Amino acid sequence: PSNLIRLLELTKVHGIPKFVYVSSAAVYGSSEPNLTESSVCSPRNHYGILKLAGEQLVKHYSDYFKHVILRPSTIYGCYDTEQQLVIKFILAAMQEQTIAVNSSAVDLVHVRDAARGIIGATLGRNTQNKTYNIAKSQSFDLVDVANLVVSVVGRGAVSVNGSGIAD
User: Fold this and answer.
1) How are strands ordered across the β-sheet holding 139-141?
2) What is the pTM of this model?
3) Given Cys at both, which of 83, 93, 95, 166 links 156, Cβ 3.0 to 4.6 Å?
4) Are 140 and 73 in contact (CB under 8 A)?
5) d(C-alpha 125, C-alpha 36), whole Å
6) What is the C-alpha separation between 113 and 58, in angstroms, rounded?
7) Distance between CA atoms of 76 and 111, rounded to whole angstroms?
């Protein structure tokens, strides 16, 4: 939060008219399909809690400049790192490991679509002091995603609510 506060203070001091904060769908604490911007926020981990706190900090500065808050779902693309969900699954399968998943949903958004959403909200004329989800609104069960990865890679296994490489 201290870096965010520094950015917000610099935005205020330099008279920048609009601040764009990229939060996360993790603020909802759920990956149920069809979450809307007015859905209840109830984060389940430190990441979601910190993102929600960041949103509150940004809103606190709304007397000084306009803002837009963006909540992307799980973003994937060709430059993913091994810390990202789909790549984790692929690496585990390639190493013939077991991918441990629970039966929860994930809304996957391609990086190009996320970028379009961020650009649109940043440059949009009527986006001031609003919050937007960046999502496909089409959830996939993690079990299905893991099984697809194992099928495509041709190795590895999937364990539902078991032990293995954690999702």
Assistant:
1) 74-76, 105-110, 139-141
2) 0.80
3) 93
4) no
5) 21
6) 24
7) 6
Whole-angstrom distance, CA of residue 75 vs CA of residue 85: 9
Give the strands of the sheet with 165-166, arranged side by side: 157-160, 98-101, 165-166
Contact by Cβ (8 Å): 31, 139: yes
- Paired with 108 in beta bridges are 74
Name the amino acid, one letter, at 64. Y
Cα atoms in the 13 Å half-sphere on the side-chain side of 163:
0
Return the pLDDT at 167: 43
Q: Going residue by residue through the chain, which has 167 residues, state the pLDDT in tens, using 9 for 90 and above.
A: 799 999 999 999 999 999 999 999 999 997 676 788 999 999 999 999 999 999 999 999 999 999 999 999 888 888 877 778 888 899 999 999 999 987 777 888 889 999 999 999 999 989 999 999 998 767 788 899 999 999 999 999 999 976 555 54
If you write DSSP's letter for every residue of 58-118 in order, what string do you get? HHHTTTTSEEEEEEE-EEE-TT--TTSHHHHHHHHHHTT-EEEE-S-EEEEEEHHHHHHHH
CB 158 within 8 A of CB 99: yes
